[in-house]
Each structure stands twice: as C-alpha cells, then as structure tokens.
Amino acid sequence: MTKNIQFKKFIIGAACFMIMATGSGVVAGQQSAHAATVTANTAVQENAVTASSTSAQKKNAIIAHSKSLIGKVRYKFGVNNPSKLWFDCSSFTKYVFGKQGISLKWGSVAQSKQGSFVARKNLQKGDLIFLSVSKPGRINHVGIYIGGGLFIHNTIGSSHNGLLISNINSSSYTKRYITARRVG
Fold first, then answer.
1. Which residues are known catalytic residues?
2. In sequence order, which ranges of the chain are alpha helices (DSSP H)?
3. Fewest CB atoms within 10 Å of the CB: 69, 81, 107, 140?
4. What is the DSSP letter of 103?
C-alpha cells in the first residue's frame, strides 16, 4: 500500500506540474500575443502620425512654395507652362502640388472630383477651394486654402496678373464659393 500511495503522490505531483507548466504556457502565450498586438497597434498609430505629419509638411511646403512665386507667376487662360511660370488657375495648383508628389489633373472641374469633400467650416491649410468666377454656380476657378480665411490663387484682374492672396469670407468670394476638396 505504501508503493500505491507513493505512486498516487507521484501521479498527483506530475499532474500538478503539467497543469502549472501548461497554465504558465497559456499565460505566456497570451502575454506574447497581447505584446504582439500592442506592438502592431503602436506601429499603426506611429505610421498614422507620421503620415499625418508628412501630409501637413507637404501642405505647408505647397503653401510656402506658392507664396514664394508671388510676382513671378503669370496668369494665362488654358496654359500650363512651368518653364515660363505661365499657368491658369488649375495648372498652377497642379504644378505646386506636383512639386510635393501629389498628382492633380488639369482643370478646376477635374480637380473638384479628386480627394475627399471638405465642409467649408472644416477647411485646413492645403485644401483646394473651388469657386465660380464667370458662370454662377459652376466651378471654373480653384485656389489653395492657406488658413485664417485666406486662399492663394492664380488669377487676372484689372490691377494684377498672377498669384493673389484673397479672403474667402469677403463679399466677393462668399457668394462665389462652391466646394472644397482635401487631396494628398
């Protein structure tokens, strides 16, 4: 009977050892899986932050480059001539966005279909804004929102030809505003 008790103790001990070993393996496995999930989630969040900051950097570079071209760019309807800096409104936006690796089509109507819709109250730097300047209610002009209610656009007027910074909230542009898009 002593051998039988010793054998039972051995079996119980071995079973306890197996339970502990298996249990700690499950816990360790769960911890490893949790750690891998946390690491993956952190990487996704870091990539999103990097993409967001990269996008913001691109938009700031687009605005800075646009401003640096004031007085150098000439407005010419239907023209896309980067070597002479002669552009219409949409070939200008195509040009400065392209310098940051963001591809835009030529034409304000075509550009108004790219990217995603942005409500006027949610405008951010670098958003494209679309206006009607000749035919009411029809998109035929595009500019780049630069913040603070201002946008830069290539246009022609009685006193200027080329890039101009205008206030989107002025009476002239409030009635001409149609929509906005976020690209890049």
1. 89, 141, 153
2. 2-68, 89-98, 108-111, 171-174
3. 81
4. -
